[in-house]
Amino acid sequence: MLVMASAGLRKELECSICLNIYTNPVNLTCGHNFCRVCIDRVLDTQERSGGYSCPECRQGFQDRPALHRNITLRNIVENFLSSQPDQAETEVFCTYCVDSPVPAVKSCLLCEASLCDKHLSVHKKSPAHVLSDPSTSMEKRKCSIHKEKILEYYCTEDSACICVSCCLIGEHRGHQMGSLNEASEKRKNKLKNVLQKLVTKREETEEIIQSLQEHRGTVEEKAAAERKRVTSLLGDLRRQLEDLEKRVLSEISKQAEEVSRSVNDLVRQMEIKKNELSRKMVHIEELCNTTDPLTILQKSDTGDLCDTEDGDNEDRERHGQLFHDHGDLDVAEISRTLQAGLSRIMKEANEKIYIPETADILLDVNTACNTLNISDDQKTVSYLPNQNRTETPKRFKVYPQVMSNQSFNSGKHYWEVIVGESQSWNVGMCYPSIVREEKKSRIGFNNKSWGLWKWNNQYLVAYCSQKIQLPYNISSNKVRIDLDYEAGRISFYDLCDPIQHLHTFTTTTFTEPLHAALGVWEGCLKISG
């Protein structure tokens, strides 16, 4: 009985148009409820015929009726759906087995009843009694306009399932029709095609995800290795600097001790001399205070007491020699020791630190489009039409671009370009096999080049015609291009302060040598250095 009650409630909660449980239910002024999407679709169809009416009671409306949300009904639907077990959603029971639920094997669209094997055997089998697979919403198979009519046809013009009355006297009269099976098969074929495309796209997406995950793993491994390398390098530098500090401080202490020892020796000698002078001064003062002439003349030797000039000269020489030889620190020697140690440490550090080589880029006039002028030093390219140069297979024909003479097939290199105030330009790198005469020759818009663009006051990077707009503008007037050939990386930087990384292209491996490439539609570009 509980199952029957639930089935009865479910029937009350079904939209009479789609025959599904209400979704976002609304009602008309006549009181009947519908899914908002369903009634909007019906009213849109009626609008073309010039009149509006309720699909349930056929009450007419002069103007398109307003739709009012039925919040109470919506809450009832939500509570009903949340209380239903999974089985009630999937299994259909016989309508006539009221004592206990028995699974149905067929549903009769005419009787709107589901039947078990027992009741199916006694059911009328006239053509009017159309049997279908078990269903809890048999009204889906009936026309919402002609209530008792079964949906048998498909209107291809309106993309709607209709009954025979819709074909003969209804609004679909004269339209191109087809059977439900034919329309279903066509729809299945389309869905299969869509499914195949979606499967292909999903596989491509999975490959991209796998590639990104692998790249992330590679970057994480590389970052770990770099952290280890930098930590080891800086740790070694700290140890060497500490050793150098100890050595220089030891040298300073050694020199200071030698100066202090020499000064102390001379101070002791001067103290002895000072004491001797003091003794002579006391003796002379005593003689000067004596009144007996005989005593003064017999006890004083003026030559011995007053002869100090030779000693004074000797003291001055020793004092001068002290300052000349060991009287001060040898700051120059300390600085030479410090400089030699720092130079050795920096030399060893530079050997361990990656420093890309500055590429000396010269532009190849034979590749320059005839709308470009190349300076005599082959460093500056300007937009200047009608150059009238001899046509060569290397020359760009469609876009104002030029390549470098040099190519790179190994190593790490970088080069810089002054973009100035030019509003339309591109810089990057390309293979020598890039096309020169087609529209696909734009740098970054094929699989043989990588480019950074400024166009219409926007900055973007491109490869294989895939454009990525940069989230920020270049704030300086100079950009830098880094190449790591073995790693398959091309990076772009804005040379502001501090330097701003713009984008890095990463490929598995480069298959050809790489040339620098520039393009300009206004003003000029200049290779720095």
Plain-language structure description:
- The protein has 529 residues and is an alpha+beta fold.
- The protein folds into three domains: 1-90, Zinc/RING finger domain, C3HC4 (zinc finger) (Herpes Virus-1), CATH 3.30.40; 225-352; 357-527, SPRY domain (Jelly Rolls, Sandwich).
- The chain has eleven helices and 25 strands.
- It has helices at residues 2-12, 36-49, 71-83, 86-90, 117-121, 164-168, 180-289, 293-299, 302-306, 309-325, 331-352, and strands at residues 25-27, 33-35, 52-53, 60-61, 68-69, 106-108, 113-115, 131-132, 153-155, 160-162, 177-179, 357-358, 372-374, 380-383, 401-408, 412-418, 425-430, 449-455, 458-463, 466-469, 478-484, 489-494, 500-506, 514-520, 524-527.
- Strands 12, 13, 14, 16, 21, 22, 23 and 25 form an eight-stranded mixed beta sheet that branches. A six-stranded antiparallel beta sheet has the order 15-24-17-18-19-20, with no helix packed on it.
- A hairpin with a 4-residue loop joins strand 6 (106-108) and strand 7 (113-115).
Could you name the CATH topology of the largest domain?
Jelly Rolls
Helix content: 40-55%
The average pLDDT is 84
Overall, the morphology is: elongated
The largest β sheet comes out as:
8 strands, mixed
Ordered list of secondary-structure elements with their pairings:
Layout: H1 2-12, E1 25-27, E2 33-35, H2 36-49, E3 52-53, E4 60-61, E5 68-69, H3 71-83, H4 86-90, E6 106-108, E7 113-115, H5 117-121, E8 131-132, E9 153-155, E10 160-162, H6 164-168, E11 177-179, H7 180-289, H8 293-299, H9 302-306, H10 309-325, H11 331-352, E12 357-358, E13 372-374, E14 380-383, E15 401-408, E16 412-418, E17 425-430, E18 449-455, E19 458-463, E20 466-469, E21 478-484, E22 489-494, E23 500-506, E24 514-520, E25 524-527
Parallel strand pairs: 12-16
Antiparallel strand pairs: 1-2, 1-5, 3-4, 6-7, 6-8, 9-10, 9-11, 13-14, 14-25, 15-24, 16-21, 16-25, 17-18, 17-24, 18-19, 19-20, 21-22, 22-23
